[in-house]
Design a protein that fits this description.
2 copies of one chain form a homodimer.
Chain A (H helix, E strand, L loop, with lengths): L4 H8 L3 H9 L6 H14 L5 H8 L4 E6 L5 H16 L3 E6 L4 H13 L4 E4 L16 E4 L9 E4 L1 H14 L5 E5 L8 H11 L5 E3 L4 H14 L5 E4 L2 H13 L9 E6 L2 H6 L4 E4 L2 H18 L7 E4 L2 E3 L5
Helix pairs in contact in A: 1-2, 1-3, 5-12, 7-8, 9-10
Chain lengths: ~325, ~325
């Protein structure tokens, strides 16, 4: 049998109202009474019902987190930091993997609102989801522009692209290509592409779908068709890894014949592929800043500080360039 | 202003009780009335309060998921599958990263019980957490033995260790070492170690802490002190990657002078380090089986089927052996 509040009251020799007061830290309670109640809670192994409490307090202490997929090293690391920070502030994370699909993301955002979350952090690929207009619901977008009213926290994608491409140029590359995901409006990787196109004379960008086997096949086709390629700026580390794999298969020497630079620089990439030159995103800072902004909005019901926060990135030079 | 149930009732020209019946699918409602209510919900952009509903139904549709860290490729991929499966069944995931710390895991499990989760999935490193004894709370442990009453789903760790070590022996290795995490009782990696110790004449196992820089330093020390080593069975892919990194630094040729095999075989590892020979765990099957078992316990209040489920692993032979 579950232990109830009434059982605690009985064991402590006080009224249920007194137990409730102790739990909610409301009204005057003597230290002695408080101690008696706390001892009874400990003794009986009582767990207050936080669902009932949240209904009463109109605060659930739930934060919704929508990511494309937590199995991607970047979103995995970001989710870890976000969850840890929220946990230290007394908030719980409801994890949603949208797979980048509009319908899934819409269903998740509806579910989060119905569950009375105090706020949502979105790393989304989808604009135009109506639920994000829900009145007064604090939302912070990470690295994506969702709507004019939703603040954005991210890193400096244009600078990242510039650092990457300039590094390839400095290393002597004459025929640099850029490999990116599907072209969508206003996703941050498009700023990386913009930097590439601004720096290179005859830019050639390939848009690949996010599917591992296809990526390897597509890159093989690209390198066979364009043997003069001596530099690749990949828009994430997984794509860069696929370039290295294809180069090995085709006996193209890296970095002598081909230089490859990735993007993200997660701990996982740095462990599994330490030889990769990459642009490191400040993932922990992105997590801290976006949670702080969301907490400000939850506490003050409106946005203070800048609408957009752009954090610095870092070039990590290793063996592939 | 938030739209309320009463607003929907007014717009639909019915009583609040009728709206509530439609939402909860209770009692007789004519198709016409149902349509009127649904239209009003759509029109007014009404979101039912699922917190209040869950209090009434004594079901929250929340599942707690405790992992050491979602940023590890294995737990990231496992969390993705678990969340996707739960979501398709109408359940939401509360994500908890325990960092393998007893106190954190205890706090998380208490929080989950207070929030009335319908069940918990634990990939834990800690035994003896009292909250796991909470009456009638369905719990399934993934790949860890938590308590005699808590069912376990995992893969065949002894077979995995055997496949790995036998493969190194078959490839001609004469001096095989094993690199594992800290020795703890009854964690599954200890079965991998057991298989190694059963197959090798003079087994040498090194226990490393889970910290990247330390791992690389420790492995360098091991390889310098033990130059006769020609085979390494690492208990996960990240450790195997660190071995490859050190081998490169020390100019030890892989696989000619040293053969390395890892463990886990996640999608991320296979993308970033496709040349690694490894033991692939059936991560999606582990997710499916553990969720199914938990759902059985939630629906039937008791365990049906076996107490322990052991799923098969697979040897993936690549370039490092």
């Amino acid at each position: 049998m579950k232990v109830k509040l009434e059982d605690v009251a009985k064991a402590a020799g006080v009224s249920p109202t007194t137990v409730s007061r102790v739990l909610n830290n409301r009204g005057y309670i003597s230290e002695l009474t408080k101690k008696k109640v706390e001892d009874a809670i400990e003794e009986l192994d009582y767990y207050p019902n936080d669902v009932a409490r949240s209904l009463f307090k109109k605060r659930t202490n739930f934060i919704g987190l929508i990511v494309p997929t937590v199995s991607n090293p970047f979103f995995g690391e970001l989710s870890l930091y976000i969850e840890n920070i929220c946990s230290s502030l007394g908030y719980k994370i409801i994890l949603c993997n949208s797979s980048g699909q509009f319908e899934k993301e819409k269903a998740y955002s509806t579910m989060l609102i119905r569950h009375q979350v105090d706020g949502i952090l979105v790393c989304s690929y989808n604009r135009g989801i109506d639920t994000y207009k829900y009145p007064k619901l604090p939302i912070v977008a990470i690295d994506h522009y969702l709507a004019p009213t939703i603040p954005v926290v991210g890193s400096d994608n244009y600078m990242g692209g510039k650092l990457a491409v300039q590094h390839l140029i400095d290393r002597g590359c004459l025929s640099i290509i850029h490999i990116n995901g599907p072209l969508e409006l206003e996703t941050p990787t498009q700023y990386r592409r913009k930097a590439y196109e601004d720096l290179v004379d005859n830019p050639v960008t390939y848009e690949l779908q996010f599917d591992e086997e296809d990526i390897v096949l597509s890159i093989r086709k690209i390198l066979l068709e364009r043997p003069e390629t001596d530099g690749i700026f990949a828009s994430d580390d997984l794509m860069a890894a696929a370039c290295l794999q294809v180069a090995r298969e085709l006996n193209i020497q890296v970095p002598e014949q081909l230089k490859v630079i990735g993007y993200d620089g997660t701990k996982t990439t740095r462990s599994l592929l330490p030889q990769l030159t990459t642009i490191k995103q400040p993932i922990e800072e992105i997590a801290k800043t976006s949670v702080k902004k969301l907490m400000d909005m939850i506490d003050n019901s409106e946005l203070s500080g800048p609408y957009e926060t752009v954090l610095p990135v870092q070039l990590l030079i290793n063996e592939t360039t």
